[in-house]
Amino acid sequence: MAAVLRRGVKLISSGSSQLLSGGCKHGRTSTLCISSSRPSSSKINVELDSSTGIAVMRFQNPLVNSLNLDFLTEICISLEKLELDKSCRGVILTSAQPKIFSAGLDILEMYGKNPEHYAAFWKSVQEIWLKLYGYSKITIAAINGSSPAGGCLIALTADYRIMADNPRYTIGLNETQLGIVAPFWFKDTMLNTVGHRTAELSLQFGLMYTPSDALKINLVDLVVPEEQVLSTATETMTKFLAIPGHAREISKSMMRKPVVDRLLSCRDADIKNFVSFISKDSIQKSLGQYLSMLKQKKS
Ligand SMILES: CCCCCCCC/C=C\C/C=C/C(=O)SCCNC(=O)CCNC(=O)[C@H](O)C(C)(C)COP(=O)(O)OP(=O)(O)OC[C@H]1O[C@@H](n2cnc3c(N)ncnc32)[C@H](O)[C@@H]1OP(=O)(O)O
């Protein structure tokens, strides 16, 4: 559904969208997506400025934008709609939740569930990564809060990352801290951004970086005062938009296609691997302990 907000700005909400089969269209698979009109349940908010072609997608899945199956599906559907929309030229990804960009994958989706659930969840994680890493349009992550693990992955898929200058916010692939392992395509995305040695240390220690440290290792491209994150993202998008589109798009694809193709060539095996890994008693125990630690932190 779309409603006009102010001149040239459309508010697009996917509402309680449903996927009829598989996941979003990319590479060899395709999906028919439908939307119902219940915007109140929407976990994202998209504003497309038709005068500039810039869409701002805000994540609003309380409390911490953790990436559960529904949320991932909704993001994927909206990205697909924007990709098909000729009036959209680039997408800024940001958060409507205070202090958090995204808490990463929803741990509750990987804990105490059955293998079928794990498989469906992992498929949706693959879908969002394939959609974003292979996205034809420009994407900029306006990182206005903490961004661990899967949250960092979402940011890493963007063409450019701008982070709020707040030392309380951290970003990184901290999977080992939970006793789990970032899969090869998380690793490849990190490696393509920060280089081999930094990725190796970062992944083994499960390091989380403050904005200034993230800038030093090129995990983010720019650190700006919090209130300027969105405006800087818009300015940066304008610079990207000044480049001839087809040349930029081919260059992006040239850099990323080998990594995308690697997952496409073994999606089912990757799902099987995940299900077998996450179902192990020792891994379930680690996740249970981590969840308890998160709860205790409060008290
Ligand atoms: C051999 C190879 C095999 C390969 C197999 C591959 C396996 C790989 C599998 C998975 C990859 C995993 C990727 C991930 O993304 S895992 C998730 C990592 N995320 C985190 O570690 C973040 C944890 N959370 C935090 O650090 C903090 O919550 C915070 C900084 C995000 C926010 O802090 P604060 O504002 O203080 O809020 P609270 O901590 O109080 O949290 C509020 C509320 O939310 C719950 N919560 C937080 N994060 C998550 C999450 N990721 N999933 C689910 N729930 C989360 C938290 O527990 C609180 O809940 P409440 O007590 O009920 O209110």
UniProtKB/TrEMBL annotation:
PROSITE patterns given in the database record: ENOYL_COA_HYDRATASE (PS00166), PROKAR_LIPOPROTEIN (PS51257)
UniProt GO MF annotations: delta(3)-delta(2)-enoyl-CoA isomerase activity
Q: Which GO BP terms sit in this record?
A: fatty acid beta-oxidation
Query: Which pathway or pathways does this protein act in?
Result: Lipid metabolism; fatty acid beta-oxidation
Q: Which domain of life is it from?
A: Eukaryota
Keywords of the record, alphabetical order, are: Acetylation, Fatty acid metabolism, Isomerase, Lipid metabolism, Mitochondrion, Transit peptide
Role according to the record: Key enzyme of fatty acid beta-oxidation. Able to isomerize both 3-cis (3Z) and 3-trans (3E) double bonds into the 2-trans (2E) form in a range of enoyl-CoA species, with a preference for (3Z)-enoyl-CoAs over (3E)-enoyl-CoAs. The catalytic efficiency of this enzyme is not affected by the fatty acyl chain length.
Q: What is this protein called?
A: Enoyl-CoA delta isomerase 1, mitochondrial
Q: What organism does this protein naturally occur in?
A: Bagarius yarrelli (Goonch)
